[in-house]
Amino acid sequence: MNIRHVTVADTENCGRVIYKAFCGIADKHNFPHDFPSLDAALQMAQMSIANPDIDGFVAEDDGQFLGSNFLWRQNRIAGVGPITVDPDAQARGVGRRLMQVVIERGKDASGIRLVQDAFNTTSMSLYASLGFDVVEPLVIMQGTPAGEASSQKAEVRPLEEKDFDACAELCRKAHGFDRDNELKLIIKMSPTFIAVRENRVVAYASAPTFWQMNHAVAETTEDMQSLLSGAARLTGQPLAFLLPTRQAKLFRWCLSQGLRVVKPMTLMAMGEYREPRGCFLPSVLY
Fold first, then answer.
1. Does the pTM of the predicted model rise above 0.85?
2. 189 and 104, same structural domain?
3. What confidence score (pLDDT) does residue 91 get?
């Protein structure tokens, strides 16, 4: 087995295996597909390979493409994914080798994190055996809030360039680091929102209708509720985001608003991890 850096020529193989692998595990457990089409998986592969801040690796054996893995290094914390192995090449140690490579590549980061399907016991066991700790149980929440957020409503509006510093500071207060570089990339691709109360940015969400790219931070649960309600109203689209279920008040509010649980997932971390302060939603990376 050979592990090497990904190239543009690998785009089609990467996209094909990403789609095939994610559909296979979802169908096995009767969950919806993360990638609705092969084209969507190809777009993910193309974007990941083209981004200089994302390191990609592929595994091959005698010219046969076995799988790929990516390490996102836009910020102080590195994120893993998507990691996929061709279903026809399972149980050959391919996933372990691909994970070992990205762990080595990310050794200079303050920490490495990933999000995996909680029903995928094989991947959870692999990551735990490599040194990742389970830090948050998650669920994907999806739907449109049925009513108003709270009595302490904040003004919700699209994020502008002038808001980056305030969002970075809010993230640092919550997690000990910011995701400024990632936020500046996502705002070019997805509607991004902030909540303002008393002339202060009290919450932001990078992509509240697209859970794979979204992350959010808020000073309080009420601020997060206002942000989510406002984002749904402004976009006219259903929300889709990852929710840490230990945030019981926000979880119950989502359920009371008619949002539904799509599937369970798990946030896992290696290296630096500080218990978040305030209210937060992770992305598919961390």
1. yes
2. no
3. 86
